[in-house]
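Hi L.,

As promised, Site-specific DNA-methyltransferase (Adenine-specific):
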Amino acid sequence: MDETTPVEQLFELLDDLTKTIQQELNITYLEAIAEAGEDIFQGTVVQRISAEEKDRLEQSLEENMPEAMEQEDIRKAFQLALIKGMKQSVQQHHAITPDAVAIFMGYLVDKLMNGRKEFVVADPAVGTGNLLSAVLNQLSEKNIEAYGSEVDETLIKIAYTLANLQEHAVQLFHQDSIEQFGAPDPDVVMSDLPVGYYPKNQIAELYQLGSTDGKSYVHHLLVEGMMNQLKPGGFMVLLIPNNLFEDEKAAELQAYVKRQAHTLGLLQLPETMFQAKEASKSIWMLQKKSPDVKQPGQALLAELPSFSRQEALQDMMKRINDWFVQEGFINK
């Protein structure tokens, strides 16, 4: 019989804790994940639940905690629980960035930073912190100052717990990034961009991309807001829906971005990664203009092959790497 992996072992413990806390406190599975993560971090059950269940869970914490775990083991175990919780959620903005996409975005950030060992990364819609954690784990040899902001209280609690368990020194803020983003100017803004209407008209009207008809787009405002925060010459690596440039206000967004930044690339992800064609996404790379920044000779535009097609993917990665060399982001 195969031994369980640390990821499976931690997930089983986390799931048991979560389901019990969910039932005992009459909260959602997602809300209970943050509570269960705190118990794992503290090594004891901190919630007020029945004595019988508390004793059982504390015994389980003592007996079933994996002896040795990597940061990625922790992230992946929580990811499994989050996927389970989000299937039960009615909130459309509750979604997990696929692992392969998070790893690829980390690769792009690394290339754009061109060997720099220290830089600042910010995610203005950090959610549960899964994307940010995946990139930090991937670039663990770097000294990255990381910041994340999230308006959803449940998600930011999970992000906080996940950061603690992985020992990531991430500054997290429970706030609306469009209204306020309490972080130093980043070198890189990286985010799985939320899409929809923004409800605070008085705030939206302060933005160039804000609308006076009460129908401002949250994704437009986030791009503008973080462009203002971004250091001159800094980068954005954004996961966006493929139809971002097809809505009635797309021309305004494109005109704004053209004034403020250079589009470095648009990489369309394989449709097979998403449940429906309408849900397909791309990675949009931008560089904020500054006197010492040149527009790329040619933007990197590509449709990525399925990540399971190893030979085709290797060819594409070589093409992408060659582009970074050609444009001077990395040395030959």
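The chain has a mean pLDDT of 91.

Thanks again for sending the construct details.

K.
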